[in-house]
Amino acid sequence: MTKGISCVLALHSEGLIAHKTIRSLNRAVRCAEEFGLSVEIVFAMDRATPETKHYVETSPVINPKYKIISADFGDLGLTRNLGIQHADGEYVAIFDGDDLTSENWLVHAYEINRANRRYVIHPEISVVFDQKTLVMYHPDQRARDFDEANLIIENYWTSLCFAARETFLEIPYVSTPKSSGFGYEDWHWNCEVMARGFIHTIALGTAHFIRVKEGGGLNAETAMRNAVIPHSAVLDALGNRSKRKRTVTDATKIG
Description:
By secondary structure, the chain is α/β, with parallel strands linked by helices. It has one domain (about 5-230): Alpha-Beta Complex (Spore Coat Polysaccharide Biosynthesis Protein SpsA, Chain A), CATH 3.90.550. The protein has 8 helices and 9 strands. It has helices at about 15-35, 50-60, 75-85, 105-115, 165-170, 185-195, 220-225, 235-255, and strands spanning about 5-10, 40-45, 65-70, 90-95, 100, 120-130, 135, 160-165, 200-210. The N and C termini lie far apart (about 65 Å). Mean pLDDT is about 85; it is low at about 215-225 and about 240-255.
């Protein structure tokens, strides 16, 4: 077996929904192991509900070798950071408790990251399901038509990502408690990755399946409380660049 991959899965109030997530993760782990990769799973449980705790403690699909860490943050970013700190793998894959992934995800992401440790890998597509249906194609920062300026108004990549462990240690997720007025920790982290000179790329043929529950998820809750993304140096740079472009265009029109 080669040096390993740590899958960090944040859990809080998923309850039995976590069952399908963990089965999906197990399939990806088995696929990676068939290719000679060693994989560990780290559950980072933040203020987990009784139903979620009971499931994790009793489910037959959870291997006793899995690491289970409890926290009392009430904050997704800090929960992921804690899971990463307890991870032993050379590479880390981030998962959410109510989503699914294609079984080839770990293998394809590992192959790309092994070729260049400055890459942060994302799936090619995300498929939203349950209360909403949507398919999103994620851009590759290396593509000639990649427009980084759009990061000012939208997040290009979802929470599912894969990178060398030192990348996450250098760029930890920020804390965004409800009282702060900030949110969208994934969006902010993606911006910080670019600001530090890392490259977002995609693993062709892989997919992230995002469950939109009836009660909404963390992003829906964040939008409802009118949260904003924390400051990022890359957004400053993009904003200044956009302003210069507009100034040149306006001057041309006036002339």
